[in-house]
Design brief:
single chain, alpha/beta, Nucleotidyltransferase, domain 5, 5-stranded mixed sheet, elongated, endonuclease, RNA-DNA hybrid ribonuclease activity, RNaseH-like_sf
Length: 224
């Protein structure tokens, strides 16, 4: 059956309150490993784009997992730790600044999602996801059934969990990057184009973590 028709007779009752609706319906269709996939870091001028793929326990409490953008850093960290200990299967993937430059940010995001799905498949008891719920409009380039959901973090707890993992993982990476390149303030803005970050690029030129094809960086490649 075409994945897009799986919910054809149920869509009028789509999950405004039940954010495990899609997962539950897919499980009833026979999909045993339904994963949510999301990314963090499409907009920054520096650092990788990071994706996560999460399979939530079918019998667990899905209600704590909401869009990472609505949570404080402390709340995201706590939920990240909960996901790490409650039996969820988690895979993380990334695409580097050089890969982003080579294939563009959309394709790099999808590549990171593919890598996250593959990593998730290696988590015991093993087996790649057999269906993906993907945040956004674009499918991941893998031969697995998929459903894309615009604003998926608010519609699927699995996607919300993936958004939390991706965001926390990337924030930690950029905090580590701050130790290497403290002049840019990566620990404060995580590479996003804030006024302070743009000023730092203007004053110091780009570093190896900057995305050289992005406006706000490319103009300063020959700084100094």
């Amino acid at each position: 059956m075409n994945p897009r028709t799986l919910f054809a007779d149920l869509l009028p009752f789509s999950p405004h309150t039940d954010t495990f609706y899609f997962e539950r319906q897919l499980q009833r269709q026979g999909f045993a490993r339904v994963a949510g996939v999301d990314e963090a870091g499409r907009g920054p001028l520096a650092g990788p784009v990071v994706a996560a793929c999460v399979i939530l326990p079918a019998d667990g409490d899905f209600t704590p997992y909401v869009d990472s953008k609505t949570l404080t850093r402390r709340q995201r960290e706590r939920l990240f730790e909960l996901l790490s200990t409650n039996g969820a299967r988690i895979g993380v993937g990334e695409a580097s600044p050089r890969e982003i430059e080579q294939v563009n940010i959309l394709q790099a995001s999808l590549l990171a999602m593919k890598r996250a799905m593959e990593a998730c498949g290696q988590v015991p008891p093993g087996g790649v996801p057999d269906f993906l719920l993907v945040d956004g409009r674009f499918e991941v380039p893998v031969p697995v059934g998929q459903r894309t959901l615009v604003k998926g973090e608010s519609k699927s707890a699995s996607i919300a969990a993936a958004s939390i993992v991706a965001k926390v993982t990337r924030d930690r990476m950029m905090a580590d990057a701050h130790a290497l390149f403290p002049q840019y303030g990566f620990d404060r803005h995580q590479g996003y184009p804030t006024k302070a970050h743009r000023e730092a690029i203007r004053n110091h030129g780009p570093c190896p973590l900057h995305r050289r094809t992005f406006r706000g960086v490319t103009e300063f490649l020959h700084h100094g």
